[in-house]
Amino acid sequence: MANPDPRQPDSPAPRGSGDPSPAPAGRPAPSREPREKTPPPPEPTPPGAPAPGGEPAPPDFIRAAIVEDNLSGRFGGRVHTRFPPEPNGHLHIGHAKAIQVDFGVAAEFGGPCNLRFDDTNPAKEETAYVEAIRDDIRWLGHDWGDREYFASDYFEQLYQWAEQLIRQEQAYVCDLSAEEIRDYRGTLTRPGRESPHRNRSVEENLDLFRRMRAGECPDGARTLRARIDMASPNLNLRDPVMYRILRATHHRTGDRWCIYPMYDWAHGQSDSIEGITHSLCDLAYEDHRPLYDWFLEQLGVHRPRQIEFARLNLSHTVLSKRFLRRMVEEGVVAGWDDPRLPTLCGMRRRGYTPESIRDFCERVGLAKRESLVAV
Question: Which residue range is the domain that position 110 belongs to?
Fold first, then answer.
């Protein structure tokens, strides 16, 4: 007889007894029927894997965009990504998410993922950071094979393309200081003003730009700027700087160059040179995408598709490389691998495994809006 009162637990049988003991007076006899076991919770379904019903799980917005591109024949069905760190510090847990996205998406679609060091600022970059970044990515379990590149590999090509834009009257040499450029740029509510040097002739701009390269101008005296639209509601399109004069020894090219490309000029063109199909970026670069596309369209070269996703933000955690560097340099912590830091080498020293970090990044998932993960 089944227990008529579900609020009363069944009495367990004594150890070694085949039958339950007689029930005390006033209590019903325990049920001989086996109780149903609570089924275990279902395992989480990986992105794109079949759901329990047999239907594929809906992909996230990045994978959905790639599937759409493949179905339309864009890029010939290829998927080629890249992870582009700047070698100016050690990687942290926030970078781990980007690594998982870049390498993971490429692997899922059967394509390669490049490792490219965006080394366009010699004042802050070091070979030691290059080696540390390689070690961290390998420790996480990813391999880029022979696909390791540097933005500095393309310095000459970037320079030649800059001259092409000058000849197309889409770039000019500007003598305004950095402070004046910021003032002329305007604000979100006030349109920018054109530089007094915006209408120099092609010949004068080519001559000045070549003199910049030859080292005839002091640091900060001139810049090369794109000629786009000083009234654009997108501040990134208000004649952005493409090159600045900076005398600093580069970790790979030495003192061969004294002008260096800005990130927005080097990034998209490096993607194009390497044949990248999908440039997966931090959400902070969403407003830079029109500039990314504009440069490539004017040059008439291969144009990857840039897709942005929210970075990983953790509560009570410093994930700014600038502040992490400051703590290291000022002796607040023992070094980049201090176990109190969220750097990958620090987390490794603290005892975290690469599997746990990869799993954490996968569970956080992808989003188009910034959020804070409580830890």
Answer: 61-364
